Structures are given as C-alpha cells and as structure tokens.
Amino acid sequence: MRTAIIGAGIAGLSAAYELEQSRRSGAPVEYRLYESRARLGGSIASEVVNGAVIEGGPDSFITEKPAAAELCRELGLGDQLTLSNDADRKTYIVVRNRLVPLPDGLMFLVPTKLVPTALTPLFSLRTKARMALELLHPPRSAGQDESVAALVERHFGAEAVDRLADPLLSGIYGGDAAQLSARTVLPRLVEMETKYGSLTRGMLAAHQQMRARMSAAKPASGAATKPAGPRGIFTTLRGGLQQMVDALEARINPAWVRRSTAVTALEKTAAGWRVTANGAAEDFDAVIFASPAWAAGALLEPVDRVLGEELRGIPYSSSITVNLVYDESQLGRLPEGFGFLVPASEERSMLACTFVHRKFLGRTPPGKAVLRAFLGGMKNASLLAEPDEKLVATVERELREILGAKTLPAEARPEYAQVARWQRAMAQYAVGHQDRMTRIRERVAALPGLKLAGNAYDGIGIPDCIRLGRGAARELAATLAAVER
C-alpha cells in the first residue's frame, strides 16, 4: 500500500510514524510525506536560548488526553515529560488595567462556590445576583446548536461572556465566543443544561460523582495515605515540544520525506490517487490530508466540489506569540501565578500573557523570567502585518501598563525577544460544526483511500492531532490487512 501524507505538522508526522511502525512489522507499506515548508512540525517550534526553553507555538498539551504522553513514551521521551506547576496556578483577568484573579471554585466557566463568587471584584452585583439565581434555571431541551456566548449569557449574563467566556476561549482557540459552537466546544455544559437546567447544579453533581469514584477506588486496608498535590493540567517536554518532532522525524524513512514540496494537484484515478508536486506526479493507493482544511479543500474541490467547499468553509484564526526573556534583577515582583487573560473590551493588542518560568519549573535558568504574550485571533488579524520591532514594543508597553512601572520599569529591557506568526493556523469550531462534520464524513466515505487528520475536525490540541493522525494510518493499515485476508 502506497500512501501520500500531505502536511508534516504533528498530525502528519504521527501518521507517518504509524505507517513506519507497520512497515517495520512486515506490512507492505510505503509512504511519502509532503511538506510545503523546509521544516517539519507545523506550529510546534522550540528553541533553547541561554538555557531558557522558548516555544514559538504551543507550549504544552492537556494532561488528561493521553495520546501525546503515550507517544512521547513510545519515542523514549518519558523522562522528559514535565507537568505544569499547578501548586502555584493562578490566573488573572485584566479589568480596567487591574489584574483580578479568577475566583476559587470556578470550574471552567461555571462558579461553584458561593463565597468566592460573592466576594470577587471580577463581576458586578447584578452579575453575581444572576449567578445565584442560575441555580433555579429549568432544564432545556436540546435544540439547534448555538454560540458559546449565547449559552453563557442565558445563564450568567453578558458580563460573564465579556470577562470570562470570551477571554478564556480566546486564549485556547484564538476565537470569538459569539462564533464558537457550544455543542462542539462545551458539550458537557450543553448536556448539563439538558439534564439539570442549572449549569452550577450540573457541575456540582459531576464533582460529587467524581469524588465518589475516587473514594470507592481507595485501598480497602484503610491505611492512611498522604494526600496528593494538584496534578498538572498541562504537560510539556523539558527541552521543548520540538523534542517530540525531532524524535518522530528520526523514526521515519528520510528518503520518503518531501520537504519544501507543495502539492499542487490531486486526481482520483481508477486505481487510487495521483498526487502532483514540483511538476512530478506519483500514484498512491491512499491519501491522508494532514494539512489545514482550507488547503485540503482547495486540492479536493476538483475531485468532489461539495467536499472541497465544506472543508474551505471551516474558519481559521491567525495568531502571534511574542516571547520576552528578562533578567529578574531588572523586574519588580510579578503577580503570583501563571499569567493573565485580556478581554476584548479592554481594547488591547494582547489576548493573554503567560509567566512561562512559573508555569513549568526547570525550563528557565535561575534569575531569568520569560513572559510569553499572545496577539492576533479572530478580532486582530491585521497585527500579523506589523513588523517585529513594533509588536515587541506594543507588548512591552501593554505589559508595563497592566503590571505597573514598579514591576516592569521603563529601563527594563528584554535580553532576548522572539516573534512567531501563525497564519490561518487554528481552526474555529463555529456554530453548526458538528453538522458540517457529518456532511464531510459522508463525502469522505464515498472516496476510498481518503483520510483527514488535523485540528479542524475533532479536537484542536496536540493530543487530538496525534490521535487523528495515527488513527487515520491505522485505519488504512487495517484495510490493507483485510484485503490481504
């Protein structure tokens, strides 16, 4: 079986690795990995500068999704896995240039503790009253998909959208809560509303069920055990996520990797697929698209116009990361915790800032601080055209205005600054995404040997992309095995 993999981000690399494993196990597998850029890894891009790990793209992955950590262990990187320092985890929201901590008991977007919610300056008295009355919210039948903003506003009011939902989701998706699909992005909350009505009651019930399961799982001996500290929500690699990309690259056949090679045409043939790149055509039994959906759609439209249009219809956002490395002797005391989020109503360029040296210990030399800012998103895509020096100056100015001159004095200058741009890199799960995916799957099923993988379909994070990439390769290998039988 000859397979073309189009796109060598983490999804494409994972697919190639899976096919390579099958080949080494004796399966008659051959593949070609096409990447339009000179480097592999997509938006994963790490470097080490004077001992500090700098991530130009994602800096970690969700711990509870196992695919990424499992792959790292397979690649011999298990000893490099590092959990986030959640014992010191604290996140702030910027409100009129003040850093207001998220209240205790907030489970994603749902307040579950009365006193912290009542005392927080994050919300007005009117919103707090709305949150208290939310406990009386009646169950609602599952209807048409709606935006996250509509769901949150119905339960907690418009201020909760502005100061909670929008900045949190902007930090994750680079998107807009008024556009993102509640059914896709927050399926648990949609289910809770259907069952309990009140999201607060639903979240408390889920928490009680989890505690009951943990209690039931305790050893029967009754021996006293030391309570475990908070488990890190995020996981990374000690030397940077680039370690995973490098390890994958080392385990696939280098002769079958096509760098700086953009696929320009795709044709469905009687025997399979014909891929054209750099003016040369090759025939394959199968194709795995691990490129952005908009790129896959452009190539697939001549094969299936409806499928191409559906793929090109998936919206994407662009983003910018700005990493600044400071000598701590030049800074005042930074606020405790991991960093802050900036609501759109603050009318700033920054979406968020992470205190990297706090989030993951052991990746920054003693005496150094790494501040990582995020810009762009759906509402500020024009920033991508700004020169690096202007973006750095903008981040420095906004950090000084938010953190204060005592924390970041005017004379404090970063020892190193890195700007990374990611054009149309993050898929947006807009309202109606699940219906779109149903239509896409129906069209793909009618094209034997075609698979889709990447962040546009069923999860945007690194573990999701790995799961989808490896899953696509396994499905093709299973098809081959069934044919041979």
Q: Can you walk me through this structure?
A:
With 485 residues, the protein is α+β, with helices and mostly antiparallel strands. The protein has 3 domains: 170 residues, 3-Layer(bba) Sandwich (FAD/NAD(P)-binding domain), CATH 3.50.50; 153 residues, Protoporphyrinogen oxidase, mitochondrial, domain 2 (Polyamine Oxidase, Chain A, domain 2, Alpha-Beta Complex), CATH 3.90.660; 110 residues, protoporphyrinogen ix oxidase, domain 3, CATH 1.10.3110.10. The protein has 16 helices and 22 strands. A hairpin with a 2-residue loop joins β7 and β8. The longest helix has 23 residues. The two termini are 14 Å apart.
What share of the residues does DSSP label as strand, in percent? 15-25%
Overall strand count: 22
Q: Report on the biggest sheet.
A: 7 strands, mixed
| Low-pLDDT stretches | 222-229
- CATH homologous superfamily annotation of the largest domain: FAD/NAD(P)-binding domain
**Which structural class best describes the helix and strand composition?**
alpha+beta
Question: Termini distance?
Answer: 14 Å
* Oligomeric state of the chains present here: single chain
CATH class of the largest domain: Alpha Beta
Mean pLDDT: 93
CATH architecture of the largest domain: 3-Layer(bba) Sandwich
Domain module tally:
3
Q: Strand order across the biggest sheet?
A: 8-7-18-19-20-17-21
Rough shape?
globular
CATH topology name of the largest domain: FAD/NAD(P)-binding domain
Helix content: 25-40%
The radius of gyration computed from the alpha-carbon positions, rounded to a whole number of angstroms, is: 24 Å
**What count of helical segments does DSSP give?**
16
